[in-house]
Amino acid sequence: MEVDSQEQLQRKQSTYLSLDENFEIQKEVYRGQQYSQIYFARLHMMRTLLYSLVPNWKSHLPVCTVLELKEGKECIIFGTLYKHMKLKPCILDEYSKERSVAPLIKPHNFMHQDDYLVLEDESGRVKLGGTKLSPSVYVTGVVVALHGKETSAGAFFVEDVLEAGLPPQIKRPLKSREDKYVVFVSGLSIGRSSSNPLQFQLLVDHITGHLGDEEEQGLAAEIVHLVIVGNSVEISRGLLNGQNLASKDQSRLCEPFKELDILLTQIAASLPLDIMPGSSDPANFALPQQPLNRCLFPGSTTYNTFRSCTNPHCFELDSIRFLGTSGQNIDDLTKYSEAKDKLDFLERTLRWRHLAPTAPNTLGCYPFTDRDPFLIDSCPDVYFVGNQEKYETCLLKGLEGQLVRLICIPRFCETGVAVVLNMRNLECHALTFGTQISS
């Protein structure tokens, strides 16, 4: 009986393939290049794609550039949207001597009823009118095709909009019909004064199978992968702003990393894990963020199950494709557009086939000269985003049979919630870790 029990508790395995090459900065060198080139690359790639969709959309209409528009003549134009925003923050305001008594903007969103959209191509730009294209939905950087005509006022009245839509999805038969689980956790924020070390240890013990009865340990043995989705540590701004750190402060600076490494070493000894950088982690600010330096994890890196990855991060497990970010792209969209929930923002980025359309306008990114790494050319099976306020999920179905599991992963430090996905059927649920004793 003992042998049978041990066989049952043998951890399941899965095949792993990293697809992060597109997000890795290797030969690129920053020499003061401008950001216009990344917009040109985006427009060129997306226009080619949209042009191929026109015959099934409005094949009877001519295609024009902005410069070729004629008043009253119906046509199709391609270009990049730019949103004029009355409340958009300006860096020059930081140095303005005059300060308003009442704040002019809401801290969470810069939308205003006077915002309007402009379409731009290589030949020029034109203001957009009509009700088909809502400024509250779109942001600067999205490439679309528009059907309409120029008005006497010189604007382009939009009658219909063509987006790229969900990219094609590789049809993959699920490798096995057995349950295999992937756990997602984000916003550990180790080092924050309000963080709870016991909560972190409960998470680790559950994943590694050192918690609960035989049934619970059996479920833990079906976890084949852990993805840590950004913001793993939080360092006091007072320490970071110090010019000359005292030895005591230096010790405090290192403590969150030591604690994180201890936790990750326990996990890496049991199963494979990926760790992505986030906005609060010691990585480059601009997207794509490069892997966290392995010297931060002297214990974890001794295991080949430990992988430090990019943000965004793309990989395959048993031929199921995962794509996700640590949240910066979605958080930026919430500042400059509106939606009913965060899942709606995730869906939009897939329909626009672009992970971070607001980069580089309002979201920092590397000034690529010959490509835009954030274009989505293949539809993932699972699309996740970390460091959100709450857990949300839905199954998105595309017009060509695409099926995508969308997941918003909440900040663990604040919610105690991790997300578990079953690779057999793409169903997922929240896993809550609490340390309060009920009276």
From TrEMBL:
Give residue ranges for domain DNA polymerase delta subunit OB-fold: 34-161
* Catalytic activity annotation: DNA(n) + a 2'-deoxyribonucleoside 5'-triphosphate = DNA(n+1) + diphosphate
Q: What is its main location?
A: nucleus
What is this enzyme's EC? 2.7.7.7
The molecular function terms of the Gene Ontology recorded here are: DNA binding; DNA-directed DNA polymerase activity
Compartments in which it is found: Nucleus
Gene Ontology CC? delta DNA polymerase complex
Name the family.
Answer: Belongs to the DNA polymerase delta/II small subunit family.
Q: How does it assemble?
A: Heterodimer with subunits of 125 kDa and 50 kDa.
Function comment: The function of the small subunit is not yet clear.
Q: What is this protein called?
A: DNA polymerase delta small subunit
Q: What is the lineage of its organism?
A: Eukaryota, Viridiplantae, Streptophyta, Embryophyta, Tracheophyta
